[in-house]
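Blackboard transcription, Thursday session:
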Amino acid sequence: MSQTFTIDGRVIPFEIGQTVMQAASQAGIYIPHLCYHPAFKPNGSCKLCTVKVNGRQSASCTLRAQSGMVVESDTEEINAERRTLTQMLFVEGNHFCPSCEKSGHCQLQATAYHLGMMSPHFDHFFPDRAVDASHPDILLDFNRCILCSLCVQASREVDKKQVFALSGRGIGTHLIVNARSGRLADTDFSLADKAAQVCPVGVILKKRTGFAVPIGQRTYDQQPISAPGKVAEEIRHD
Amino acid sequence: MALGEMHGEAIAGIVDRVIARYRRDSTCMVQILREVQEACDWIPPEAIDRIQSVLGVARAEIESVAGFYSFLYLRPRGQYRILFSDNITDRMQGSEALLEQLCRSLWVEPGKVSEDGLLSIDRTSCTGMCDQGPGMLVNNRAITRLTAARIEQIAELVRNRRPLSEWPAAFFDVADHIRRADILLDQTMQPGDALRAARERVPSDGLIASNMRSWREGLPSGIGGPAAMLDEIKRANLRGRGGAGFMTGLKWEACRNAPLKAGQQRIIVCNADEGEPGTFKDRVLLSSYADQVFEGMTAAAYAIGAQRGFLYLRGEYRYLLEALNATLSARRKANLLGRDILGIPGADFDIDIHLGAGAYVCGEESALIESLEGKRGTPRNRPPFPVTNGYLDQPTIVNNVETFAAVALIALKGGDWYASFGTRHSAGTKLLSVSGDCARPGIYEYPYGVTVRQVLEDCGASQTQAVQISGPSGICLSEAEFDRIIGFEDIPTAGALTIFDRSRDMFEVARAYVHFFQHESCGFCTPCRVGTSLLKKLMDKLHDRHGSPYDLGEIEKLNQLLQSMSHCGLGHTACNPVIDTIVRFKPAYEKRMVHDQFVPAFDLDRALSTARQMTGRDDSQAHLDVEQGRSA
Ligand SMILES: Cc1cc2nc3c(=O)[nH]c(=O)nc-3n(C[C@H](O)[C@H](O)[C@H](O)COP(=O)(O)O)c2cc1C
Ligand code: SF4
Ligand code: SF4
Ligand code: FES
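(Written on the board underneath:)
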């Protein structure tokens, strides 16, 4: 017999061991998220998916569902905080959407639209992050990395390669690749890797396909990120 | 070319020796990297090549770990790596002027390596020497009581490339400064006393160790030596001394009852990361009461049936390592560690020391366990908690150094005796690390329930404006609150008590603490990683006189967000010093509200200074009207 809890008053069934995020996606309910991907163990770092349970906030991607839980998610209070988180991610990196080829396919951008983010609000950090164009098929534009770790997980768990890792600490945390030179060309990374497909933003980009899909016809031009069916779907690049 | 090869071979030799000592165990990565660095002065790429090929760990993985810790260097930092302790108390004792003096003397810029590659000078978070500051670390050796004369001597020694072993021994003196001793510090327990007392407490069934029992047996109270030991801890009402004050007995019981999978064992961890600025009591316990701490760990192992223990020692306390290892050896010889301890069949337990490498967040218990496993010190998602899934997924208890010292005392004298000290909700005594504006900084042991005022009187504080209790993540009190008491019913504390007299600017105190949190955020979660940086920018903006009431609103908003969304205690408490001081010392902030309306932190006129310099102009036409944004 399946158990249930509620999100914003809606009754959600779940199986033992499922997280609130998993049960919600299954029921077609969108909870904003950036570091969660259904194929990987929840990482719990972006905190966009935070919900309120019995007055306490908690990341729904790591929170195990329990029978009778009363979860608040789509409230103005929580969305305002989520909006602030997206603003933080925007100012921490260099996100010039109009010139980004991921624009329209980008989950950060789509989430910001969903949450009604109208401005970055905070002063930009303008970090100095060099682009790595060394690889024949892939461009790495670190300017947009939100440190979600999905590429790290994909490379390790699916590709069995460990091409990526996070190094540094605090605001200096940054993505590195597995080469003494620090260049992607000197790793065994390939276009066929799972890690080439999981980046929710515009860091790991396939070369020479940038504008193959015209603006206006892109993933989130067609449907908002919250649309039913988008929720558990894997992100495609092209 | 031949030279380069030899260099590579030498490094490989060093790496191989270190790795062999750690039995090729990649969970010891932090230890391996730290020791390679001790030999090479940094972690050169050749060393990473070698670790990668010997241990089969990807180099990105190794760099990922090395990059996390402040004291591990992936770029050369010189033969002498000098770090000035940068707690607010060090600053009050003049550390900044001394840092400038040394930089001038040796021709280096702070944060950079000297041109000849000989040395680097930088700042580091509180080194735990607040009662004898200003302090510094030279290649992780602590130097205390810096003065202008001492700085001159140090400059001379570095210039002449004298090895640290030839520096005056007095530089490295670290005093205990025990100013008030109570039941914990004022006793003469001999190694083994507490364990023997624990064993003898239940003669009927005291000869079977927890290891020999099945966890399913549970712990009916009153039977068995291990069960009796746990009962004493519960009867003592002992609560953890690391700050949060969780009931130690409950934690142990949960660990004791956690199922073991095949090949697993239970683990005891002593948390000696002591990174909270202003806290140094664990240092004193480890330097003069190490036997008692180890005995407490062993008693804990006896109670819960653990076979393996770790002391996680902060990198700043590296200088204690040899002495602590000697104490451990002596205990092994005396059969107080090892197999069948004190002749009790199955009572097997031993302790390894792991050194941290400069990361405050590793004091958080799950981050500490990650670090013990040789990873970045990122706090884990919970549940599961360490008591069921800790070190290498095994049931693990993590307790503070002082908690274990109290455990030994309870084992010796019994829980009821212990509970007769202190207050109803806070049994026993507490060590306070007192520093700042007072005549007698040092360690004060009081029964719980002591008032802040009493402490101030005893340590010779006068004209006290504020007291910061439990470090930046604790609370700030003003004079009106000095009759409040230290204890879990009122002010819980990990032990720091930092005193500020009326001459201090509490805004600058809060700003220093905010810089600390920003520097120590692990960077894992968005709210803390970016939020602490934004908070730092806001405080610097007020400092630079661009502040308006708008900025206070922003601070309040960040406070809300960090409290509700951060992943761990660091982020939760990062705004505390600011919020506390805004409430209690508003004028210190109002002074900085130069503007009624929002002004940007960006200063246009200052941004033009490079252009002025390049064009050689400094006339009035070359300046923007700096008064523009200022309200009438
Ligand atoms: C950021 C952070 C740093 C911490 N640092 C320490 C520390 O240095 N020493 C310590 O004993 N506990 C520290 N703690 C608390 C530990 O997580 C844990 O609660 C404690 O070691 C448990 O021991 P106790 O029950 O004996 O107090 C820290 C917690 C956080 C969130
Ligand atoms: S590169 Fe993309 S997938 Fe990898 S951590 Fe950064 S944002 Fe995440
Ligand atoms: S709150 Fe800060 S220190 Fe804690 S996990 Fe998040 S980023 Fe790391
Ligand atoms: S999606 Fe849950 S924390 Fe990122």
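Lecturer's comment: Helices of chain A lie at 20-26, 76-92, 107-114, 150-158, 219-222.
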